[in-house]
Write a structure and sequence with these properties.
The protein is an alpha+beta fold and 106 residues long. It contains two helices and four strands; from the N terminus they run ββαββα.
């Protein structure tokens, strides 16, 4: 829309069995906080799309798999997507604001 932004991307893998879907994000670098946020956003969006009764995915899980190092997997339960839409709205407001973001000490 006017003055808006488009956020785009696609999950690495979506597997569906019965009424359960799992979103898998594969990463080759070091674990970052944004990795789970990305998977949680995909979980939320798939949940919004699959809310239509004809689509039938009522349980959506997520995984972030790290392919290097120890090969760790971060498992995200269905509830991990809760609140991610509001969090993304806040991020987008900061990104789209003409004012610079507030400085936060590290």
């Amino acid at each position: 829309g006017k003055g808006g932004a488009v956020l785009c991307g696609k999950p690495d893998l979506v597997a569906v069995k019965g009424d359960t879907a799992i979103i898998v994000e594969c990463k080759t670098g070091q674990p970052k906080t944004s990795d789970s946020l990305q998977a949680r956003l995909y979980m939320h969006l798939l949940g919004e799309w699959s809310a239509h009764p004809a689509r039938g995915c009522h349980r959506i899980l997520g995984e972030v798999r790290y392919l290097r190092g120890k090969g760790e997997t971060l498992h995200l339960p269905h509830a991990a997507a809760d609140g991610v839409a509001e969090l993304m709205r806040r991020y987008m407001q900061v990104f789209l604001s003409p004012a610079p973001p507030e400085a936060v000490p590290c």
